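Hi there,

I know you've been waiting on this one. I reran it after we fixed the sequence typo, so this is the corrected version. Both the input and the resulting structure follow.
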Amino acid sequence: MKTILIVEDDWALGDGLCLALKSPETVPFLCRTLSAARESLAEKTFGLLLLDVNLPDGNGLDFLRELRESSCSMPVILLTANDMETDIVVGLESGADDYVTKPFSLAVLRARVNAQLRRDVPAPEGPLEIEHFSFDFQRMEFRRDGRLVELSKTEQKLLHVLVENRGRTMTRAALVDRVWTDGAEYVDENALSVTVKRLRDKLEEVPSRPRFLKTVYGLGYTWVSAPSKDRTS
C-alpha cells in the first residue's frame, strides 16, 4: 500500500483529491502548507507527492527543487492553473515527473498517479508459475499447460494487475484506472467486462465456470489464490 502526500491549500479541492485517491492500494495524506509538508516528510515515507505550485507560505517549484537537491527521488506530480508551455517546461526541469493543469479530470489524475506509483514496483524476475499457468510479463510470454497463449496488450495489463494482487478483490474502478492509463477522460465500463471475458476464454478451462478469474458481485474481480474445482463463478 502506498501513501500519497497531497499539498493543496484549496480546502474543497484538497478534500476532493483525498476522496478521489483513496483506494485499497493508496492512502492520501493532506497538507495545506509547505511547512506542514516538510514536517510530514521528515516523519513519514511517501510513495508520491501531489504538489500545488501556489501555496500560502511559498512556491511549490522552490520546494520541489529543495527535494531534488536533497536527492529525494519520490515521484512528484505538479498541480497548477498555469498552462503556458514555458510553465510546464520549468516544472519538468525543476524535477517534476508529471504536470497537471487545473481544472482537470479526476479520472485522468488517478490514472497519472497510478502510472507514477507503478514505476517504483519492481518487475518480477522470471515467469510467475500458478497452477498450470506460466506468466512471464517481462518477455510477454503466457502459457497454459505449456502451450503459448496470445494476449492483447490490454489483456496483459489486466492479467498483470489481477495476478500481482491475487487473493484480493480489485474494484472495477481500480482496474479501469490501472489498465486504461492513456489519459482518456472516459472509458466505457463495458470495456472491462469484455476484456475479462476474453481472458477467461483464453485461460479458463470452462470460461462459464471460471476457477481463477472470479467475479465479486457488486465490487469487481479477483484472481483467487487457491482455486477449488467445485467453485462456480
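Quick highlight: Residues 163 and 223 are 6 Å apart (CA to CA).

Best,
R. S.
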